[in-house]
Design goal:
The structure is a single chain. The protein is of the alpha/beta class. It has helices spanning 27-36, 42-79, 84-131, 136-141, 144-186, 188-235, 237-242, 246-272, 274-298, 304-345, 406-413, 436-441, 457-462, 470-479, 483-488, 506-519, 536-550, 585-591, 594-603, and strands spanning 367-374, 383-390, 395-399, 421-426, 429-430, 443-446, 524-528, 554-558, 570-575, 578-583. It folds into four domains: 24-184 and 327-350, Up-down Bundle (ABC transporter transmembrane region fold); 188-301; 366-442 and 534-605, 3-Layer(aba) Sandwich (Rossmann fold), CATH 3.40.50.300; 450-521, Rossmann fold (3-Layer(aba) Sandwich). Strand 9 and strand 10 form a beta hairpin. The protein is elongated, with a radius of gyration of 35 Å.
């Protein structure tokens, strides 16, 4: 099932259209670390090397054999007797050699595809495992889209580069070495002419790629801007229409689109001239070799068949050289992508559970904060000395202005963050001595932002309890006042929530999250503005359900609307990270203090 509130990865696909996107900050060390993921695939990589060598050998030997056939034909023309049997044998050998070369090339690609997918699968597994171990503060400080982009786009960049790049590097290197060796065996002089033109070709390719780098960077930047604009306008299309800003939105899109078109044209133009430029230099060398080869042939130093074979090798040599230039750019992008993945793998994890950490079977629900000190940043203290006692079965309301520390209190209780000093206890046991998963198992939590999956209503409610029965799911829905509206849907509990959950109102979705929390039957219940999206009539029904369940669990209710917590057993008033007032609603009104001012500001005529 998929999260209905998720954001897609950032703009840009895993690999650009042939140009550089991003360079690695530390290519050497990051490259070495990436290589460590290949160690379990060592045998397969050796097989890739062997199959590549065999495929290339059979491929590059073919022109030399074809040259022998040409020499035989030339000799037959001179003598008037052509040896067709020999020609037939040559053709047979060529077909067999090309077939063997293609077969081993297929095996090479097949094995390398397995290697690349295994490597990237291991990398994704490591990232997934790491994400589940990272503290909440990491996700509070990093955009969801950026994290998803690292897990999807960056790993896909690595996968495609490994599958294409590694085989191309091996094949290109073996091809270059093999062709040069055969060229030397045919004619050292012609080989020298060929090698002189190689640096010129490499220089031209490097020069163009260096100057095209900025255009590809600009292209990726403009793609990001135009994608961001489209996403913003799409997600906020109701507001755009409500304020009549369609024309302005179209104007902005056209401006960005024109900028992208100009930048993309420059990038693709420079990328496109690499191959023609390389072909020009190669053809100049081809002409020079043809002239020198003809002179050598006339003098009888070299045969016509050898000249033909050499010219074929000269043509073949330019391709792997050009490929190596392009692959070097892909490797930069792959290592840069790997660096972004490694940044996640190197993040600090949640503090591990103690070796003798406890697992509580049941809890009564007495919660105490004793001299708790905490700050999100080391040099900034939010809570200096918090002391709170919530007795078993109490409804404890937490109120205060924005930034007062209400949600922070909940985060500390759930151990999303660790206290700097002091301790928090449940039934007298320090929560640091309880296994983190076991602690959270006993705490149900409903947030202001609804979080539902792309699945049926039944599946979404059942997420609160493993192997929940239909009767339990329905009972939880009834307790959360959700049963009635569910039954009015055509498919009832089997109604599938669409991708964005738009086939339910915000209030209905909130009721489902409350039902999910009820189903888990926790010893402690946390409601963080849980009724903010629910109409007044439904809110009253929820309050009745909460009162019914209050005798069975300790409840913490974070609320801005003070009307929702008038019947709470204890109200904690927070400001600047400290509890400045506490008591029941009537007691706090009589004190005529901070709470009284908050209440009166909401309900004064």
């Amino acid at each position: 099932m998929a999260d209905n509130n998720r954001k897609g990865p950032g703009p840009g696909g895993p690999m650009g259209g042939g140009g550089p996107v991003e360079k690695a900050k530390d290519f050497k060390n990051s490259g070495k670390r990436l290589v460590t993921f290949f160690k379990p695939q060592k045998n397969r990589i050796i097989l890739v090397f062997l199959t590549s060598i065999i495929s290339v050998i059979f491929s590059i030997l073919s022109p030399k054999i074809l040259g022998k056939g040409t020499d035989s034909l030339v000799e037959g023309v001179k003598t008037g007797v052509i040896n067709f049997e020999y020609i037939k044998t040559i053709i047979t050998y060529l077909l067999i050699m090309y077939g063997i070369s293609a077969l081993f090339a297929y095996v090479q690609e097949y094995v390398m595809a397995s290697v690349s997918q295994n490597v990237v699968r291991k990398m994704r597994d490591d990232v997934s495992e790491k994400i589940n171990k990272m503290p909440l503060k990491y996700f509070d400080s990093h955009a969801v889209g950026d994290v998803l982009s690292r897990v999807t786009n960056d790993t896909e960049t690595i996968s495609m580069t490994l599958q294409r790049g590694v085989t191309q590097i091996i094949s290109s290197f073996v091809t270059i070495v093999g062709i040069i060796i055969i060229m030397l065996s045919i004619s050292p002089l012609l080989t020298l002419i060929t090698l002189v033109s190689l640096p010129l070709s490499m220089f031209a390719i490097t020069f163009v790629m260096k100057h095209s780098q900025k255009f590809f960077k600009d292209q990726q930047k403009k793609i990001g801007e135009i994608n961001g604009h489209v996403e913003e306008m799409y997600s906020g299309h109701v507001i755009v229409k409500a304020y009549g800003k369609e024309d302005k939105s179209i104007e902005q899109f056209e401006k960005l689109n024109k900028q992208l078109a100009v930048t993309a044209w420059k990038a693709q133009f420079f990328s496109g001239i690499i191959m023609p430029l390389n072909n020009l230099i190669s053809n100049l060398g081809y002409v020079l070799i043809s002239i020198v080869g003809a002179i050598l042939g006339i003098r009888g130093i070299i045969t016509i068949g050898s000249i033909q074979a050499f010219l074929q090798y000269n043509k073949q040599l330019s391709h792997p050289i050009a490929m190596l230039g392009q692959i070097s750019n892909q490797l930069q992008s792959a290592v840069a992508a790997a660096e972004r993945v490694f940044e996640i793998l190197d993040e600090t994890e949640e503090i591990h559970d103690e070796n003798n950490a406890l697992e509580l079977n049941n809890i009564c629900g007495e919660v105490k904060f004793e001299h708790v000190k905490f700050g999100y940043k080391e040099d900034v203290t939010l809570i200096s000395d918090m002391n709170i006692t919530a007795k078993e079965g109490q409804i404890v309301a937490i109120v205060g202005p924005t930034g007062a520390g209400k949600t922070t209190l909940v985060n500390l209780l759930m151990r999303f963050y660790e206290v700097n000093s002091g301790k928090i206890t449940i039934d007298g046991v320090n929560i640091n001595h309880i296994k983190r998963n076991n602690l959270r198992h006993h705490i149900g939590m409903v947030l202001q932002d609804t979080w539902l999956f792309n699945g049926t209503i039944k599946e979404n409610i059942a997420y609160g309890k493993e192997n929940a029965t239909d009767e339990e799911i329905i009972a939880a829905a009834k307790a959360a006042q959700a049963h009635h509206f569910i039954k009015t849907l055509s498919e009832g509990y089997n109604t599938v929530l669409n991708e964005e959950g738009t086939n339910l109102s915000q209030g209905q979705k909130q009721l489902l999250t409350i039902a999910r929390a009820f189903l888990s039957d926790p010893g402690i219940l946390i409601l963080d503005e849980a009724t903010s999206s629910i109409d007044t009539r439904t809110e009253i029904q929820i309050q009745k359900a909460m009162a019914k369940l209050a005798s069975e669990r300790t409840s913490f209710v974070i609320a801005h609307r003070l009307s929702t917590i008038k019947n709470a057993d204890l109200i904690l008033v927070m400001n600047h990270g400290d509890v400045i007032e506490s008591g029941t609603h009537k007691e706090l009104i009589k004190q005529n203090g901070f709470y009284s001012d908050l209440y009166n500001s909401q309900f004064s005529s």
